[in-house]
Amino acid sequence: MCLLDGVVRWDMSGIRCISQSHHDQNNPLCSNGQLPAVCGVEYAAQAMAVHGGLAGNSAAKPRAGYLASIRDVKIGRDRLDDLPGQLIVDAEKLMGDGNQVIYQFLLFVGELEILSGRAIVVIDAQHTEQNTR
To answer: Residue 1 domain-assigned?
Structure first.
């Protein structure tokens, strides 16, 4: 499932992505024709994954990452599907090493903040080791 439509900009410290999929009634996260705002966490997780791929070591094989925890989540609306315009997804890498990364994320439409928080992503080193043997 890919919810993001594109990358607006990125550097080693963060990424900005855009999406219109919150308008799509066939969005796989929709329930009873509505897309709850908490689903924005998945949009943020996908932006973090794209950032990890772009900013990572291009010579190495991609490694799986798992969303281990989210903290300080603030939700400003009940739904995403009724928002006009493009959804902007920002993810900023606060710190990390080869095994764990902490991101701060923010979703908004225009000037309206929809969802924000922090996430810890754990990189699956064991999975990578097994695939290289």
So the answer is: no
Is there a domain that residue 31 lies in?
A: yes
In terms of residue numbers, what domain contains 46? 6-132
CA 45 centroid distance within chain: 3
Q: How far apart are CA 88 and CA 127, in angstroms?
A: 32
Global pTM reads: 0.88
Residue 30 domain-assigned (yes or no)? yes
Residue matched to tokens 């903290």:
71
Model confidence over 7-61: pLDDT tens digits?
A: 999 999 999 999 999 999 899 999 998 999 999 999 999 999 999 989 876 556 6
In 3D, which of 105, 5, 13, 103 has the Cα closest to residue 55? 13
DSSP 8-state code for residue 82:
T
User: Is 22 a domain residue?
Assistant: yes
